[in-house]
Specification:
α6 (113-131) packs across α7 (141-158) and α8 packs across α10 (218-250). The radius of gyration is 23 Å and the shape is globular. The chain has a single domain (39-134, 142-370), classed as Orthogonal Bundle (Cytochrome p450). A hairpin with a 5-residue loop joins β4 (293-294) and β5 (300-301). The protein contains 16 helices and 8 strands. It has helices spanning 3-16, 18-38, 52-59, 72-81, 96-108, 113-131, 141-158, 164-181, 189-204, 218-250, 252-260, 265-278, 311-315, 356-371, 402-437, 439-450; strands at 43-45, 136-137, 284-288, 293-294, 300-301, 306-310, 372-375, 391-394. It binds protoporphyrin IX containing FE. Protoporphyrin IX containing FE is lined by residues 89-90, 102, 105, 228, 232-233, 236-237, 240, 276, 281-282, 285, 342-344, 349-353, 357. It comes from Saccharopolyspora gregorii. Belongs to the cytochrome P450 family.
Amino acid sequence: MKPVRLLPWVAVAAALTAPRWLPQRVVALRGKVFELVNGDDAITLPNERFGPDRFREVYSHPAAGGRSEGAGLSDLFWYWLSPGPEVHQEHLEAGPRYDDVARTTQRFLAGSSDALSATAARCAAKVLDELVPGELSVPRLRDLMMPIWAEFNYELVFGEPCPRRARELIVGNAADVVNALKCTDLRHPRRRARLTRYLRSRVDAGDVVHELPGALSTSEQVHYLQGTFFNTSVVQLSEGMAHLLLVLAQHPHVQRRLADEPGDERYFAHVLDETMRVFPLFGIAHRITTDDIRVDERTTLPRGSVLCFSYPDYHATGHQDPESFDPSRWERLSAKDAAHIPFGVASNRPCPAWRLSPLAMRAVTREVLARFRLESSVRHTRSLPSRGPCVLVRRGTARDTRALLRFLRVRDRWEDVERSVRQLVLGTWMVLDARRQRLAGRHFERLRQQEPPPGCPAHR
Ligand code: HEM
């Protein structure tokens, strides 16, 4: 056959097999575009030279403390997290403002374990009974979890049950942030601003249960609440639960054991550790070095370096068969001694919800498993852009789900193709727009201009 005649067949074969090869290629290409546009000469750890032992040492180093100033990457994160990225705890540089904000976050998260679990269980029961009334349903897990965590965080902040309107505003805000972060959609600043206005009215009315950071103006306090509780907290807990429930849907024996023995805290801890080992919520956490870091006799990481700490690579070290999901590995292993940092490293700005998250997630898992059996045939990846489609069968009803699962699998593979192309296009657009807006870069320039010049008395 002539090559010209072959071409249409090659095109048809490429199109038909696209679900198998296209998504990974597009993800790789997106990574390259991001690297190129951000312009940081970043060092990713662990790498061939510096393994897992050095990873922890460098991450914990006092000079690995810069968060935003001096990295092109920050313009992109600030763009995604707006409004108020400059007062988000994750992005504040060390100093009195950071300390004030971090202390305030601790106050909100400090309830007793029993009280926090009871609040999470009550919010889950209310939302599940309202949104999943039938015997069989096929939600996307992240979407199902968001209203639960919206209600939970509302209660942490305002100390009363969450009204429907507030829940919609919170879910609208959190979903908008995470969709933009995953490049499945563009940002909708007006949607986010609706929540800002609502929170402002509540702060002005004195409705917040704890004192807000005194170092911040009122509009900064509102942005702090929005960024920490109605974005990060809702997003992280919803993503974490989507991974956990999807894992249970695809490992029926693990699901059965958790459903049959809801009081077995140890087994739940193993399942959660294994879920977060394989699917850590952070792909990369970055730091900017505030001083030189001497790694060995031959290598010094100069001040101003952008360090990228890769959680998936670190979590994969020291395990046999690291890709496979196996909670039983934690029977022989302590999470403290393993290469395992789902909530970050204790000495360098770890997650303030380190204690709260597992116990609240356990309470919600119990509510879900008490009501439903879960099954799913979709692809489970760390970034989970599909939001985790899953079949929920009410306990006590018998349903043949085989045809539905086949349909889900095929739909998922084709959605992956369309989505990966969309992510590439929208991601590239947002990276360029973030670079044009330079939110972080301009913020730090303004701060430097306000600083008294060296030599002036105020400087001493
Ligand atoms: C499953 C749940 C969660 C996981 C796995 C998780 C994971 C993490 C990780 C790994 C970090 C450190 C990143 C780094 O070193 O840069 C972090 C930081 C942070 N997390 Fe979480 N998180 C979760 C839930 C939450 C919740 C519920 C909140 C609510 C307040 C929260 C708020 C924060 C904040 C404010 C930081 C920045 C800390 C700082 O820089 O001082 N996270 N989280």
